[in-house]
Amino acid sequence: MSLDFDPPLKPGEMLHIDRPPILLAAVDNKGNQTEKAVIVKLRITGNNDSDPIFTDKQTISSLAQGEAKVVRFDRITSMPHRSAYTVRVEVVPVDGEMNTADNVKEIRVQIVAGGER
């Protein structure tokens, strides 16, 4: 799995909270069969990882062996200002999945209010 923003961020670049970000999660099927109803969860936390600021989930109806699909989390609207955020995307294991090591991707980002740097 890989994560990116639309528009893409360069290392060290900051998102602006007055332009809600769109998070892109590329989910691929490294298994040996087509998977149905693959659930992808988004969780954004601030300074305290136990207190989610934003959550969302989407379902990929079908993901063939070797196929990758991009999930767009575009409902991120307003979030309280924090100095940094942790963005965690998790693919819920499907029935019989043995290797879940690549089912979670977590990144740390900074988001500033308009005009701040």
Number of strands: 9
Mean pLDDT: 85
> Which sequence of SSEs, written as H and E, runs from N to C?
EEEEEEEEE
Q: Kindly report the name of the CATH homologous superfamily.
A: Immunoglobulins
Radius of gyration, in angstroms, nearest whole number = 15 Å
Overall number of structural domains: 1
Structure classification: mainly beta
Strand order of the largest sheet: 5-4-7-8
- Count of DSSP-assigned helices: 0
Share in helix: under 10%
CATH topology: Immunoglobulin-like
End-to-end Cα distance, whole Å, is: 30 Å
Low-pLDDT ranges: none
Q: What's the architecture, going by CATH?
A: Sandwich
Shape: elongated
Biggest sheet architecture: 4 strands, antiparallel
Strand content: over 45%
Mind explaining what this structure looks like?
This protein is mainly beta. It has a single domain (2-112), classed as Immunoglobulin-like (Sandwich), CATH 2.60.40.10. It is 0% helix and 50% strand. It contains no helices and nine strands. A four-stranded antiparallel beta sheet has the order 5-4-7-8, with no helix packed on it. The chain has a three-stranded antiparallel beta sheet with strand order 1-3-6, with no helix packed on it. It is elongated and about 40 Å long. The model has no long low-confidence stretch (mean pLDDT 85).
